[in-house]
Amino acid sequence: MTSPEMNHAAAFDHDVVVVGGGPAGCAAGVFTARYGLDTVVFDRGRSSIQRCAYLENYLGFPAGIDIETLYGLIHDHAGQAGCEIVTDLVESLERSEDHQGFRVRTQEGDRVTARRVIAATRYDGEYMRGLDDETAMFETFEYDGEEREHFDKSYAERDGTTPVDGLFVASPYGETGYQASMAAGRGTRVGITVVEAVRRARGYPDPIANYYDWMRRRVELDDERGDREQLGERFDERLPDDHDLEAARLAELREREIDRRLGTYLSADEIERRTERGQKRLLEHVDDDLIRQAAREMEGE
Fold first, then answer.
1. Where does the record place the FAD/NAD(P)-binding domain (predicted)?
2. Does the model's pTM come out above 0.70?
């Protein structure tokens, strides 16, 4: 049995459209794409991080990192996860006729549809105007004697959800602050929120809809944890008594969760392979002359 959400998703060009390809947008896209959601990231707006001269506080880069290299890395990561990166500016969002998704129009004239949208741009949010007629999405303020409007930073909940079904906000507003690393964390939180919303729409009851994405060593997988029957029993223990899943659909979800959990464990050989692959991928973003210089210095030693 296929859920109505999965049947309806086929009517859209994408499962998720992310507006903004900075740290917040790409972080969100990495999580939605890794879950298997068709994700496209539009990026050609006024990204706040591009106004920085140099980043010296982004964790993992002891000597700092220039913006061009960081942008290359985060876009490479999003692409590797499965995101499509499109260099275009989103000009407007509209609800579909049945209010089950969105129509996205870009500056270049492209029109695509998506079941869900993640807004990850810090500036104005004008492209979202008109999506919500009942709740104030924009607030009025006075500037230089004139009355103006801007996107209400408190419109979205802390997890990124909004009063508009399917619209999520990952922009680094309010408590998130304006540091690049905080923006990436915000995007991660919202990406997980979207995945969990999809899981609930596909029939996962709330206690099982929660999602995590990390890999563990296979040596930590003892016989009990690795037994499908035991994992199935754990799944059943978390089921609420009042769930309304049909037997066939319940069995399908149970098997999927067992496969997902078993797939998070890596053998020693696989860890070594991925470690080498990851370091080689980083080299693609390092200047070739610097690599040659480092090689000569190592030979001299």
1. 14-119
2. yes
